[in-house]
Amino acid sequence: MLRRLTAEPRAFALHAPFRIARGVKTVAEVVEVRVEEAGVVGRGEGVPYPRYGESVAGALAAIEAVRAAVEAGAGRSELLLLMPAGAARNALDAALWDLDVGLGRAVLPTAMPTETAVTVGIDTPRAMHAAALALGAVPLVKVKVDGEAVADRVAAVRRALPDARMIVDANESWTLDTLRAVAPALVEARVDLVEQPLPADADDALAGFAAPFPIAADESAHGIADLDRLKGRYSHINIKLDKAGGLTAALVLADAAEAAGLGLMLGCMVASSLGIAPALRLARRAAFVDLDGPWWLAEDRAGGGRIVGGRMTPPAPGFWA
C-alpha cells in the first residue's frame, strides 16, 4: 500500500473578533492533513487548542511522528493506539475517513441540513442585543458570558430573539455561588442549556446542585473515561471532534454517553467547513448542535457548508467523504 501524507498549517481570518470568557480570537489557526492513495486524496482539519496545551507546531510534530505508520497503511483504528486524543489525531482521522469513503472502504451517514446554534460573543448588553438582532429569526442562539453582568447580557439577547432556543456558555468562568445567583434570571430568560459553568477541576460542586435547567459538560468532557465522573453533575456532554480525537472516537463516545444516560451536544472550535464536515455526520443524534465555527471566518473554503437562517447546509458533493 503506497500512501503519501502531507500536513501543513492554515490560517483563516475572522470577520469580527470572537470573544469568550478566556480571551479573544481574531484568526483561526488549523492544521490541514492530506493522505493520498491510489489516486484518491483524503482531507482533514484539526484545531489545536491552547486550553488543552496544544499548538499548531505541536500538532504537526505529532502527525510527523506517525507518518511512517500512516504511509505504511495504518488506519483509523490504529490511530487510536498510536496517538492521544486531540486536534492532530482528529485531522488524520478525518483524512482517513475521507480516503476510505473515496476508495469504497467505508460508508458514513449522509450529511443533512442541520439546525445549528449561532453564537453571540461577549460584549456590552447593548452590543449583544444588536448582534442578536442582526442574526434574524434563528432557531438556536448561543450566548457567551463570563462572570460579569450575566443576567443583563442574557436578557438583552432574549429580547432580540424571543422565540429562539438558547444556550448560555460560561467557559468555566463561574463559581457555584455565581451559578446559584444567576439561576433565577436564566430561568426567566427561558435558557435551554447552560454549558460548562464551573472550571473543569472544580465541577465536583455540581454534584449537589439541583439545577433548574440542563447543564452540559464541555471542558470537563473528553472521552469515555470521563463519563462516570460526569454523571450526577451534568445532563449533557458536548462532543467536539478535536477533543475526542476524531470522528472514529466521537462515534464510540456518543454511544457510551447515551448508554450512561447523558444527552448529546455537538460542538466545534472556530474552524473551516473542512473541520466541520465530519461532525455533520453525527448531528442528527444531538439534542443541541453548535457547528457555527465557519460562520466566523471572513472567507471559508470553497464548496463548504453554509449557515443561512440558523441552518447549516451540507458541503458540495465531493467536498468531504
Q: SSE layout and pairings?
A:
Layout: E1 3-20, E2 23-37, E3 40-46, H1 56-65, H2 67-71, H3 76-82, H4 87-102, E4 114-115, E5 118-120, H5 125-135, E6 140-144, H6 150-160, E7 165-169, H7 176-188, E8 193-195, E9 215-217, H8 227-230, E10 236-239, H9 241-244, H10 247-259, E11 263-266, H11 273-280, E12 288-289, E13 306-308, E14 311-313
Parallel strand pairs: 5-6, 6-7, 7-8, 8-9, 9-10, 10-11, 11-12
Antiparallel strand pairs: 1-2, 2-3, 4-14, 13-14
Overview of this structure, please?
With 321 residues, the chain is an alpha/beta fold. The chain has two domains: 100 residues, Enolase-like, N-terminal domain (Enolase-like, domain 1); 200 residues, Enolase-like C-terminal domain (TIM Barrel, Alpha-Beta Barrel). It has eleven helices and 14 strands. The strands form three sheets. It has an eight-stranded parallel sheet. A three-stranded antiparallel sheet has the order 1-2-3. Helix 1 crosses helix 4 and helix 5 runs parallel beside helix 6. The protein is globular. 49% of the residues are buried.
